[in-house]
Amino acid sequence: MKINLYERYIKRPLDCFLALCALIMLSPVMGIIALLVRINLGSPILFKQNRPGKINSATGEEKIFRLCKFRSMSDERDENGELLSDELRLTKFGQILRSTSLDELPELINIIKGDMAIVGPRPLAVQYLPYYNNEERKRHLVRPGLTGLAQINGRNSSNWPQRFRYDITYVNNISLKTDVFIILKTIYKVFKREGIAVRGTGQMLDFDEYRLLENKLIKQDGAGHYVKLRWIEENDASVLMELNNNNEIANCVVGNPKKVNYEEQLLWMTKRAEEKNTVRMMIEYDGIAVGTIIINNVDFNNKVGNINIKILPKYHGKKIGANALDIACQYAFEELNLFCLTAHILSDNVASISLFAKKGFMKEGILRSRVIKNEYRMDLISMSYLKN
Q1: Is the peptide bond before 130 cis (omega within 30 degrees of 0)?
Q2: Please, what's the largest Cα pairwise distance for the chain?
Q3: Which among 256, 260, 204, 220 has a CA at the least distance from the CA of 87?
Q4: How far apart are the C-alpha atoms of 321 and 307, rounded to whole Å?
Q5: Cα(331)–Cα(327) distance, rounded to whole angstroms?
Q6: How buried is residue 328: exposed, middle or buried, by Cβ count under 10 Å (0-12/13-18/19+)?
Q7: How does strand 62-70 pair with strand 362-373?
Q8: pLDDT (tens digit, 9 = 90+) per residue, 73-122?
Q9: Whose C-alpha in 4, 144, 193, 355 is 20 to 30 A from the C-alpha of 72?
């Protein structure tokens, strides 16, 4: 990797100077936060955890350092003495610390010590190290940062491929201008409290779990073609726009979808990115995005959800829908722990009714009669599929 003058001679001294100034100026604030942590959560005040840092050029291995943050979780345990889940241990006080990023202030010490930089890929858990591929591991060619390009493009709400893509883009384009832009954008994001997700709360899978699950979301047909489901990314906007604007698909869905342009599609994706009780995935066929499959209206208490699928007409007839439906149903039952999936299909959409019926979905009856579609009236059929 080519290192420019800013990265070689300026970035580290500048980081150290700015972190020291910030530490001095914010010491009263940090003192107050430490006192509040002690009152609300007890001791210890600081949370310390091993994290991987920059790769050592001599050993080729990541330097492991102790990350310091203010505690935001209690030490509550169950009847067996085991710690409760992160979601249950995260207090309201801790949520405030995290949403304002005040829990990150002790990392200024890590920056002064040389473990971290102000800007860089965020230091993730050590447990993720075995799961990176060679491209993803490039994020460790530089010091991890207090903030980074991924954080200003969704903070923690971006999915893993997007986050790593931003990280590697930063590694390949480090400059003073980029760092200043990221710092200013971070301040704006923190004040707006955008894109917060917490490890272990179900809002975002841990990366090791994501990588293991990713291997389950792929199926090979008899002809050697691969059908794969993956989480929707920002660069899928053009395919999603094509799906939304396709007249043949529009004739098969409830309602009359409004045609959108690229900017409108991106805006729609942003609004839906943090939507709860919904899983949106792209369908890939031999590495090409060809459709979407959505599990929505998920009720985790009653263990039910609704599923629908869209595939570009030019890829019909390749059994992509059948394979994608197989993968999605397995994901819903095994990973989401659902017991029943339902599908709502217009009565004249014979192909979709047949697709779901072959999978084992049973007709429950007419969900709604006389649905108006293109001035015609038709029935909305309800189908359901129970976990074996």
Answers
A1: no
A2: 72
A3: 204
A4: 12
A5: 6
A6: buried
A7: unpaired
A8: 988 888 887 888 777 888 899 989 988 889 999 999 999 999 999 999 99
A9: 144
